[in-house]
Specification:
Length: 195
């Protein structure tokens, strides 16, 4: 489990496609500092398992399912990525419950810079729309954010200077693809109500 509070911006050291999967190596001095084989690290909101570490670089295997359902397959060497280690049981839950199980992708439709924050609007895939509510939580590229507005096919968020500076959101451009994880509680409530 994760919180959606990004610990550091990492950098893609390599992405090697291998048939139906890929091997991804990421430079992230903070998250690698105590990482070992089998640990979980979220990369742009995707929970991945460390298979090896070397200095300040960790390597993970990315299965076809993750390549097909997320933006990871489009990463290039040198790209910035959001990194977060799995939460420990004795830590504060600073954001919201984030599983690292991406539900789909979205495209940045618009960006409106303000004096001290930016308002961003993203596309909203139809199958996910029922889980997104104004003032509800959503994870975008692993970042825990509050939904400010929502309609049938798009939603908005507002980003404070800290989020713009310490995550990949500061460099996001209109047309860029992002990973979405809707609130897991909404999915469980829906399933319980349907039964």
């Amino acid at each position: 489990m994760f919180t959606g509070i990004i610990e550091e911006k990492g950098e893609v050291a390599a992405l090697v496609q291998a048939g139906g999967s890929a091997r991804l190596s990421v430079r992230g001095p903070l998250v690698v500092s105590d990482a070992s084989h089998g640990d979980s690290i979220a990369v742009n909101g995707v929970c991945l398992t460390v298979v090896e570490t070397d200095g300040d670089v960790f390597t993970v295997d990315v299965m076809r399912e993750s390549l097909d359902r997320t933006s990871l397959g489009g990463l290039k060497e040198g790209a910035a990525v959001n990194l977060e280690r799995a939460v420990r049981a004795d830590q504060r839950l600073g954001g919201h419950i984030v599983q690292g199980h991406v539900d789909g992708t979205a495209v940045l439709l618009s960006r409106d810079p303000g004096e001290r924050w930016d308002d961003l609007r993203f596309s909203l895939p139809e199958p996910l729309a029922r889980y997104v509510a104004e003032k509800g939580s959503i994870a975008i590229d692993g970042i825990s954010l509050t939904v400010t507005t929502v309609d049938d096919d798009s939603f908005g968020v507002s980003l404070i200077p800290t989020t713009l500076e310490l995550t990949t959101m500061g460099g996001l451009r209109v047309g860029d693809l992002v990973n979405l994880e809707v609130d897991v509680i909404a999915k469980y409530v829906e399933r319980l109500v349907r039964q």
